[in-house]
Design brief:
mainly alpha; 434 Repressor (Amino-terminal Domain); globular
Length: about 70
């Protein structure tokens, strides 16, 4: 079982809820199972970038990747 150390799942859940979508609705739009969305939302699954992109597309969110250090 993976551990959501980055908070990606929590953030996606927040965005999904702001979009007014249930896990089932997001899953149908993203081509995922409701169980997969639930696992992502709760940080029990470390999804691939392609899955994150599908999830974001389904909830009307964008994917931004910030790389860099403190300096």
């Amino acid at each position: 079982m993976a551990n959501d150390t980055t908070g990606v799942g929590r953030h996606l859940r927040m965005l999904r809820e702001q979009a007014g979508l249930t896990q089932t609705e997001a899953a149908l739009r993203a081509g995922l199972t409701r169980e997969a969305v639930c696992a992502i939302d709760n940080g029990r699954h470390d999804p691939r970038m392609s899955t994150i992109r599908r999830y974001c597309d389904a909830i009307g969110a964008r994917v931004y990747i910030g790389l860099g250090g403190d300096g």
